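Morning. Coffee machine broken again, so started the prediction first thing and wrote up yesterday's gels while waiting. Chain of 267 residues, entered below exactly as on the submission form.
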Amino acid sequence: MLNPKIKVCSKTILLMTHTRLSSFYYFPLKSFVSKLLLVLCMLATGAVNAVTYEVTFNATWSAADLEDASDYPGSAHFSPLIGTTHVQAAEFWEEGGSASFGVKKVAEEGSNSELKSELLAAKNTGTTGDVIEFSSLFGLPNSDSLEIEVEASMPFITLITMIAPSPDWFVGVSGQSLMDQGVWVENLTIDLKAYDAGTEEGDQFSLDNSATPVPEVISKLFGTDSPFQGRPTLGTLTFTLKDPPPPPPPPSSGNAAWLPAIISDLL
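Came back before lunch.
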């Protein structure tokens, strides 16, 4: 949704510059002067509050990651990666916590519908952004990318995908911030390690497993309960900031020292 402050800025500048409204909705501001005025107005009102990230899921899981390479399943793949951006207080999975029904269904079956309902319910409370969903990844190694919008009020991101086939194993990120001291991180790569959701028995790549009698907490997957060799990296998630916004002016320099960088970006 378009920021209302940007709407106000755009309408005001349209009147000031006599620019005609076009199919660009509130952004028919094509001249250099109009663009500069829009940027300055947005900065003055705090309207620059969302950015775009390209998210790349690079799945590298292979037979070399296992104690016995012959255990590598012929149907090895990752289920559709799912998640959302959110406020810091929102939590959907974490090591040491219990798996929700939605997380359980992703980890055991690669089914996203229940977790998607949980994410949408949280969105209705204003604590999360849009649901993020990738496609399944077969034919490993493989990768997929998509672009997401991240608001400054919700700079944390959580994602999860099933290691398939498996009892209840998954990889993902939980509550990862895309801001560092109020500044958007330009590039971030996270190694993906295996987790056990604690909801099903089994130590091999199989979907036919009995439920854990008393559900356990989410934990790192390694050792005798795992076919993996140690705790290998099964892939990476990379977050790349698209068109980074200009940095805020240093407190002591005033806005004048910052204008040349803005003007250079607009030329």
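Residues 1-8, 16-27, 42-47 have pLDDT under 50 and may be disordered. Going to sketch it on the whiteboard this afternoon.
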